[in-house]
Design a protein that fits this description.
Strand order of the largest sheet: 1-2
Radius of gyration: 23 Å
Distance between the termini: 37 Å
Low-confidence stretches: none
Mean pLDDT: 89
Number of strands: 4
Length: 185
Amino acid sequence: MPYCPSCGGFHADDATFCPFCGTMLGPVEPSIRYAGFWKRTGAAVIDALAIGVPANVIVAIAGGSGFSSSTGVDQQTGQTVTHFHFDPPRVILFTLLSMLANWIYFATMESSRRQATLGKMAIGIVVTDDQGGRISFARATARHVAKLLSALILDIGFMMAGWTRRKQALHDMVANTLVIVKPTS
């Protein structure tokens, strides 16, 4: 009778999952290497630059994001005073445009034939479904929206990629996706 490599429990010859710990049984694809926390962090930094630099140039050309400050000298006290300015409609507009641009960037790139954003391509990792295949735009959208969950719990959802068995962050688990080292073909 065969046993589970994770918990050591015995299982039937034709079992797909271990009845004790739930580990998937059967042959493991040796060429699949999951991308861990640091590879994913490196890709995120590159993506932040790839999106952030052009976005800041566009915002500057458009006249600012709606937040500004000015410094002057108080005539009565002679002290330097900073005044902060806030333009709610402009802030809302730029926030919505930023969210839209991020969604389109991530969902389009990760569902493309390359299966990766610019940062992921630079690091050599790709986003796949749980079988290693290409994900749809809808699944890439679900993964992107689920990143809110990963962020809302003090970014612990992102850190999970450092300790889960298949190096999945919370948003990967929600969308049933994997981030793997790009196979060499």
